[in-house]
TrEMBL record:
<feature type="domain" description="Protein-arginine deiminase (PAD) central">
    <location>
        <begin position="115"/>
        <end position="273"/>
    </location>
</feature>
<dbReference type="InterPro" id="IPR004303">
    <property type="entry name" value="PAD"/>
</dbReference>
<dbReference type="GO" id="GO:0005654">
    <property type="term" value="C:nucleoplasm"/>
</dbReference>
<feature type="active site">
    <location>
        <position position="472"/>
    </location>
</feature>
<dbReference type="Pfam" id="PF08527">
    <property type="entry name" value="PAD_M"/>
</dbReference>
<dbReference type="GO" id="GO:0005509">
    <property type="term" value="F:calcium ion binding"/>
</dbReference>
<keyword id="KW-0106">Calcium</keyword>
<dbReference type="InterPro" id="IPR038685">
    <property type="entry name" value="PAD_N_sf"/>
</dbReference>
<dbReference type="InterPro" id="IPR013732">
    <property type="entry name" value="PAD_N"/>
</dbReference>
<feature type="domain" description="Protein-arginine deiminase C-terminal">
    <location>
        <begin position="282"/>
        <end position="660"/>
    </location>
</feature>
<dbReference type="Pfam" id="PF03068">
    <property type="entry name" value="PAD"/>
</dbReference>
<comment type="similarity">
    <text>Belongs to the protein arginine deiminase family.</text>
</comment>
<dbReference type="InterPro" id="IPR036556">
    <property type="entry name" value="PAD_central_sf"/>
</dbReference>
<feature type="active site">
    <location>
        <position position="474"/>
    </location>
</feature>
<dbReference type="GO" id="GO:0005829">
    <property type="term" value="C:cytosol"/>
</dbReference>
<comment type="function">
    <text>Catalyzes the deimination of arginine residues of proteins.</text>
</comment>
<protein>
    <recommendedName>
        <fullName>Protein-arginine deiminase</fullName>
        <ecNumber>3.5.3.15</ecNumber>
    </recommendedName>
</protein>
Length: 663
């Protein structure tokens, strides 16, 4: 609301003022007082509320009298309850009295014109714009919170365009209006008033780069919607038509929260008296928006689409792998999307290229792909093939350096919802790998880390992944949904568990059973040989120490206990100073509901079964999961990746509404 203003009165001529419905106007009763007056009385016509504003602890209301002393510490305040039909159709009279109260020494007349001005948005987060009497200028988190929400208009609704909708200052599709937040300007009052008064819509210079406003005028053609505020427009004089009481606007976000943008923007409308020598702002109404954050979805959310690349290398095509993915998708009732070679340019690492998430407002939600800065063969796929109607796109480029392996999105994950020491994370927490705790080393680019942190709703946790050759968190951890009360388990690669399993099998008399049995292009290693290989033992125990460091961080930052963690047998070896998986890395799996596509480890065969597969089944299938082991050795493992690296999954959004949390 605008600050209260005082209207000056005159004994000689009536005064005219414009009053906004519901807004208190102060009247200066001392501006022109007849000689000998010591008290005053006030009367108002129908539709005008007249009252005295004073501090009850210091001022006592006169008892049995209709007048107030002129020297009282109180203010005369008035307001109107409805808009005027004609100019000056409300009236307030102030009468001044001397010692004889029954005889007035003079009168001041104030004519009022009531105008109803209100700028309204979906402050209540119901999906509809309703007239708000509460605080519209601030934004509050939580189930009792309030404040409107903007979507970044980062999809492409017009098939003729090659760019996201937010790049256009002209509306290209009527469907695009559904991605915008409606805003309603009420402007009811006598038409003649607007001959000398104007309504001006404003946005600050800093916010103008982050929001665009379209005004709806006339019919339903594209030309009926014009940009009125945006990067090159900070002010707009509203074109009110005679008799018009409501004007509709549509607001779109232009950028996500980031290191230099908290996500809050404000728009205001002002009623300006343009008839005076100097224009005077009589009233301003302001509304606040928060730009919806980009939200990741964990493995516990149901899958909707499984993405995989068709590639050819020296071993031939990955056709068998694609068949296995098709079977897995069919079991999980999930759509399979195969990226052809002409689009992936023989880049198979689709998880590294992008991450699926979504944005949501009360009136609309749609998926948004986050394109990593790795920029290899798949660099054009997210923009050219995924960006489209109700499918948004966002990216962050590294300004001055080439990306490292840790900038790929195999190094980006998110936990299921957790509670940590009473602090709830209903949308989980983002996990990224870095060189911490060692000094130096590789890190995810700051521009990406800043973006993820700025979303606020999935506070990131940094893990130590720079001990690995590729350096991704998906090489040593994943989450799976479970059918019990906990709802999920954290799976961690475990050299300790693998060595223990092999020792058990040796003691049972299976020491000659061999790793890589069934792989004609890989030399077999017996259990006895592996247990006697001091270098393999040393390297794997180094990996175990690194994983244990992350285990402690994950327990602390996600509020986990040991029973929430499942150790998956895995060995590593050092190539130089960095670790690689000794056999296909089973935690690097794709999770489609209860169906797990797990890299086939080619472990020692005992009683006709792979002992590694049997151990993993015994750990996971009692939790309601189904383990499907898939051969990825030549097409992925030999190239330092596995199934998760070579696939990507779009999942259903959370049912929980992000604005109901308190970050």
């Amino acid at each position: 609301m605008a600050p209260k203003r005082a209207v000056q009165l005159s004994l000689k001529t009536p005064t005219h003022a414009v009053c906004v419905v519901g807004v208190v106007t102060l009247v200066d009763i001392h501006s022109d007082v007849p000689k000998g007056a010591n008290s005053f009385g006030v009367s108002g016509s129908s539709g005008v509320e007249v009252f005295m504003a004073y501090n009850r602890t210091h001022v006592t209301k006169p008892i049995g009298k209709a007048s107030w002393p002129l020297d009282t510490d109180a203010d005369l305040a008035i307001s109107v309850s409805t808009a005027s039909k004609e100019l000056k159709d409300f009236e307030v009279t102030v009468s001044y009295f001397g010692e004889q109260e029954g005889t007035a020494l003079g009168h001041s007349v104030l004519y009022l014109t009531g105008v109803d001005i209100s700028l309204d948005v979906d402050t209540g987060r119901t999906g509809k714009v309703e007239r708000s009497q509460g605080d519209k200028t601030t934004w509050r988190w939580g189930p009792e919170g309030y404040g409107a929400i903007l979507l970044v208009n980062c999809d492409r609704d017009n098939h003729r365009s090659t760019e996201p909708d937010l790049t256009h200052s002209q509306l290209r599709s009527l469907a695009d209006l559904q991605d915008m937040s409606p805003m309603l300007l009420s402007c009811n009052g006598p038409d003649k008033l607007f001959d000398s008064h104007k309504l001006v819509l404003n946005v600050s210079f800093s916010d103008s780069k982050r929001v665009r406003v379209f005004c709806a005028r006339g019919g339903n053609s594209l030309s009926d919607y014009k940009e009125v505020l945006g990067p090159q427009r900070w002010s707009y004089q509203v074109e009110r038509q005679p008799g018009e009481q409501e004007i509709r606007f549509y607001v779109e976000g232009l950028t996500f929260p980031d290191n230099d943008f908290l996500g809050l923007v404000s728009l205001s409308v002002s009623l300006v008296d343009a008839g005076a020598l100097l224009e005077v702002t009589l009233f301003t109404d302001t509304v606040a928006f928060r730009v919806a954050p980009w939200i990741m979805t964990p493995n516990t959310q149901p899958p909707e689409e499984l993405y995989v690349c068709s590639v050819v290398d020296e071993h031939g095509s990955n056709e068998k792998f694609l068949e296995d993915m098709s079977y897995l998708a069919l079991k999980a009732s999930c759509k399979l999307v195969i990226c052809p070679r002409v689009e992936n340019r023989n880049d198979r690492w689709i998880q590294d290229e992008m991450e699926f998430g979504y944005i949501e407002a009360p009136h609309k939600s749609f998926p948004v792909v986050f394109d990593s800065p790795r920029n290899r063969g798949l660099r054009d796929f997210p923009y050219k093939r995924i960006l489209g109607p109700d499918f948004g796109y966002v990216t962050r480029e590294i300004p001055s350096a080439a990306p490292s392996s840790l900038d790929s999105f195999g190094n980006l994950d998110v936990s299921p919802p957790v509670t940590v020491g009473g602090m709830e994370y209903p949308l989980g927490r983002i996990l990224i790998g870095s060189s911490f705790p060692k000094s130096g080393g590789r890190q995810m680019a700051r521009v990406v880390r800043n973006f993820l942190k700025a979303q606020q709703v999935q506070a990131p946790v940094e893990l130590y992944s720079d001990w690995l050759a590729v350096g991704h968190v998906d090489e040593f951890l994943t989450f799976v949904p479970t059918s019990d009360q906990k709802g999920f388990r954290l799976l961690l690669a475990s050299p300790r568990a693998c060595l223990k399993l092999f020792q058990e099998k040796k003691e049972e008399g299976y020491g000659e059973a061999a790793q890589f049995d069934g792989l004609e292009y890989k030399a077999k290693r017996s259990i006895n040989e592996m247990l006697a290989d001091r270098r393999l033992q040393r390297d794997s125990l180094h990996a175990q120490r690194c994983i244990d460091w992350n285990r402690d961080v994950l327990k602390r930052e996600l509020g986990l206990v040991e029973s929430d963690i499942v150790d998956i047998p895995q060995l590593f070896f050092l190539n130089g100073s960095y670790a690689e998986a000794f056999f296909p890395d089973m935690v690097n799996m794709v999770v489609l509901g209860k169906y797990l596509g797990i890299p086939k480890p080619y472990g020692p065969i005992i009683d006709g079964h792979c002992c590694l597969e049997e151990r993993v089944r015994s750990l996971l299938e009692p939790l309601g999961l189904r383990c499907i082991f898939i051969d990825d050795y030549l097409s992925y493992h030999e190239l330092l990746g596995e199934i998760h690296c070579g696939t990507n999954v779009r999942r259903k959004p959370f049912p929980f509404k992000w604005w109901n949390m308190v970050p």
